[in-house]
Every structure is written in structure tokens, then in C-alpha cells.
Amino acid sequence: MSDPLLQVDAVDLYYGDAQALSGVSLEIRTGEIVAIVGANGAGKSSLIRAIHGIEKPASGRIRFDGVDITAWPSYRTCEVGVGHVAEGRQVFPNLTVLENLEMGATLKRARGAEKRTLERVFTMFPRLSERRRQPAGTLSGGEQQMLAIGRCLMGQPRLIMFDEPSLGLAPAIVHDVFRIVRRLNEEGLTILLVEQNVTASLKIAHRAYVLENGRIELSGSGRELLDNDRVRQAYLGL
Amino acid sequence: MTSDFLLSLAQAITKGLLTGMVYGLMALGLSVIFGVMRVVNFAHGEMMVVGMYLAWAGFEYLQVSPLISLPVIAVVFFVAGYALQRSVISPFIGRPEHQQFLLLLGIALVLVNVCLAVVGPDSRGVQLDSQFDSYEFGPLVLDAVRLHAAIAAVAIAGLLWLFFTHTRIGKSIRAAADNNMGALVVGLNVKRLYAITFGVGAACVGAAGALMITIIPVTPFLAAEYTLLAFIIVIVGGLGSMTGALLGGLLIGVSEAVAGLLVDPSLKSMFSFGLLILVLLLRPQGLTGKRNP
């Protein structure tokens, strides 16, 4: 079996005195979709931020493609290919759609391919192309999510971590988002998916972890967890 | 009203507009720093005065016109601003405002007292060859030095606008100001961008100082006055807005000049404060400001 692309080993994270993650370990192999499910406040976003370097873990190790990236700032982890589509989309509301996309390509690893990737993003999301001169703040929620994904692609990531990509979107658009995640994976990108929409994410995930109170409580293939009684009771209300 | 009065009023307004452009450039520095980092530079007037002294020293000892030494002063200010942000100010970002206030007030005190210690309290000015030249536009007579300073200020503001809209770093700074979390997510080096921003803000005020010394002589005691003036301009124009800073500069420049004509030059601040109070009462977000920034 190939070495994992991302390896998280016994990571603890605190906000002041409150512990957000305790001893979290997981791994993602190249080409996988791995889902992390769990209730609100279970630590899912904290985990993504710790991997990306936006939050600094108190202990533990994070390796990306064999390189120790623990506590690297996000401008360095982005540079080795860690991509992040953040919760709440985090577009730049007063910058135009085009400028938002350019901001995704300020990384050294991305500059050479900027034009080509821009065309690819516009082909994938024609709406963004139509609205390229508009401030991002004037886009609808769904369009902003497309922009956030496009902006992430501009950085030539190898892994994309999606943090609640369907949150607050209309059902039809939620469906689009999952379709895009699957398509990006088929194009070769490795995906870490954090979602409250447990059924949908377990269905597209190869493997999944259940995070409760900052700890990994369960793991298995997407199928196994969908059938697991504990998951069905706690998250699917069955 | 006599046509004589109208002419001197028009003369005062033009003079005010020209000085106002230099004020605008000074305030632009404050506005850029605040707009991006939410740090209020309480040492702004002190930096202005240091810029004036540097230009004066260049003229006095090296016989270099302030308009020529301006780019050098701007670069020196950029580097100093960058270093100051990286070393001292950066840890204070996100801390309570009174802590930032004390830090920058401390920097202000150091700067003004260094000026006092090195140059002394006497007023220092430059006597340019063009000191008494003027241009005539119909009945209006414009001082050459004031006109040159105003043109230079507008040109620098234009360069700044190009920097923020057409360069990768300028756009990144706007992005970081717009959404700090978004900037971290796409991998912008926010600390470095903040340092560049402080450098750019400092370069603006340094350049404004080099222009101002051609218009009026400098004493260390001008510093506090300029800090206050820069605040008034930025609040009148709209916090964090570049066009607001320029517009506010013009307004304050004109109000000072008209006050000097109608009442007494020593009462010019009263008019500026009056304008400030009026804006705070009628349009608290400033002339170009949005509500709830």
C-alpha cells in the first residue's frame, strides 16, 4: 500500500483552556475521499485548521507527503499542496470574482499555471466567468461556494479539505456541491470532507472517521459507517 | 460683496485646495494603515515631522531639493515602517485598543523628542529658488511651490492607487483587509502583508512631509497638531477609504485657508474641528464611508 498523503498523529489542540482536539490520529491516502462526521462543536473545523496551520496544535505530528508540516503557517502548507475550502466560504467580498481567483494563485507553486487553471475554473463554473467583474459580496451563497472552490483550485492543491461546503445552501445546490467534490476526486485530487450532511458525505466517501468531543470514536469505510448502529442513531436519526 | 473680496476668496480656496492635496497624502497613510490592520497610528504627525526634518536636512546640508529627496525619504520611511511593524507593532495586533494606543503614543514621544534633541525647538524651513515664483491663471495667482507640492501629492496618490489595484501585493493587501480568515485560507502571508502596509503608510506620510516642508517651516511641536489633523481628515472623509482621505484633505485645506481669510489664521483649527463636529453629527460614517464598516 502507498504511503499516506496526509498523516495526523495524536494531535491535541486547545483554545485557551478549552480542549478542541485530543489525541486525534488519521490518515488519507492519495486519491481517497475521506469524510469526517460529527456533531456541531465536535472539533471538525478545528482539525482542518490545525492541519492547515491556521491553529497551532499543542502536541502531535502532522505529515504531508512525508514532510513534517506540524505548526507550519498556512502560507507554507499551501505551498506544498494543502488546499482548504473554508467554512462560511470566506471569499473577499469587496474584491471582484476575478481578483478573488487571482488571490488563490499567489502561491509560488501556482503562478506558472495561473492562466490555464483560470480557464479550467471558468469552464467548470461558467457563472463565475459571467460575473468575473462583480464584487464577490454580490454573489449568491451557492455562487460564493463555487468561487471558494475555484479559488482553492487556483492554488494547485494536491489535497482539498472541505469544511461544511453545503452549509446554508439550497438543496439543489447542495447536490451540485457533492457532485463537484466527487468530480474533483475523479480528476485525481485527494479529498478531506467535513460535513454535517452525514448521509451524503458517507455515500461518496471511501473511508470516514467519526469525531466526538475532539476524539476519533469510530472509523471505517463509508458503507460500514452508514450501516453502523451507533452512527445511524446519533447522526441519521434512524 | 466686492469683486476684490470674491477674488481673494477664490485665491484662498485655491491655496487651500493645493495644501489640502498634501494633507490628503498625509492622511492617506493613516487611512491605509487603519483600513488594513485596524491599528490607529497615533505617531502619524510625529512621522510627518520627521519626514519634514529629513527633507530640510537634505536641503540644508546636501543642497538637495525636497522634491528630489522625496523618493529617498519615502524609501527610508517604507523600510523603517516595515521594520517597526515586524518588530514592535505586530505583537499588538488584535490586542485591546488602549494597549495599541500606549505603544504608538510611546513611539510618538520618542520620535518628537529625538527631533527636539537633534535639531532643537527652533523652526526650520527651506528657501527654494522657486520660493517667490507663481503661475497666473486668469486673475488667480498660484504659488509655484504649493502647486508643485500638490501635483507631486496627486501623482503619489495615483501611484498608490495603481499599487492597490494592479499589483499582486497590492491586491493581496486589499484581500487581507477584506477577510483576514480568507487570506489565511488561500495562503497569504498576512504578517508580511501587514508589514508592507505599514511601510506603505509610512512612505506616504514621509513623502507628505517632504512636500510640506516646501510650504511651511517645521518645529517639533507641529507633530501633535498633524496627528490630530490627520485624524480629522480621515474621520471627515470616511475611515479606511482612500478617496475619503483625499477628499477630507481637500476640505480641511480649504476650510483652513478660508478661516485664515475670514477670521484669523491662528483660528484655522477651530474651523477644522467645526467641520469634524458637523460630519460626526450629520454623517458619522464620514463623507465616503459606508455604514457599519
Give the topology.
The complex is a heterodimer of chains A (238) and B (293).
Chain A: E1 4-15, E2 18-29, E3 33-37, H1 44-52, E4 59-64, E5 67-68, H2 74-77, E6 82-85, H3 97-104, H4 108-111, H5 114-124, H6 126-130, H7 141-153, E7 159-163, H8 171-186, E8 190-195, H9 198-204, E9 207-212, E10 215-221, H10 222-227, H11 229-235
Helix pairs in contact in A: 3-7
Chain B: H1 3-37, H2 44-62, H3 66-89, H4 97-119, E1 134-137, E2 140-143, H5 144-166, H6 168-178, H7 180-185, H8 190-212, H9 222-237, H10 242-262, H11 268-282
Helix pairs in contact in B: 1-5, 1-8, 1-9, 1-10, 2-3, 2-4, 2-8, 2-9, 3-8, 5-6, 5-8, 6-8, 9-10, 9-11, 10-11
What's the short version?
Chain B: Keywords: Amino-acid transport, Cell membrane, Membrane, Transmembrane, Transmembrane helix, Transport. Chain A is an alpha/beta fold and 238 residues long.
Task: Kindly describe this structure.
The complex is a heterodimer of chains A (238) and B (293). Chain A has two domains: 1-81 and 159-238, P-loop containing nucleotide triphosphate hydrolases (Rossmann fold, 3-Layer(aba) Sandwich), CATH 3.40.50.300; 92-157, no CATH class. Chain A is built from eleven helices and ten strands. The radius of gyration of chain A is 17 Å and the shape is globular. In chain A, the strands form two sheets. A six-stranded mixed β-sheet of chain A has the order 6-7-8-3-9-10, with helices on both faces. Chain A has a four-stranded antiparallel β-sheet with strand order 2-1-4-5, with helices on one face. In chain A, α3 packs parallel to α7. By secondary structure, chain A is an alpha/beta fold. By secondary structure, chain B is mainly alpha-helical. Chain B has one domain (3-231). Chain B contains eleven helices and two strands. Chain B has a two-stranded antiparallel ribbon with strand order 1-2. In chain B, α1 (3-37) runs antiparallel to α8 (190-212) and α2 (44-62) crosses α9 (222-237). The interface between A and B is medium-sized, with 27 and 16 residues. Chain B: Pfam families: BPD_transp_2. Chain B: Belongs to the binding-protein-dependent transport system permease family. LivHM subfamily.
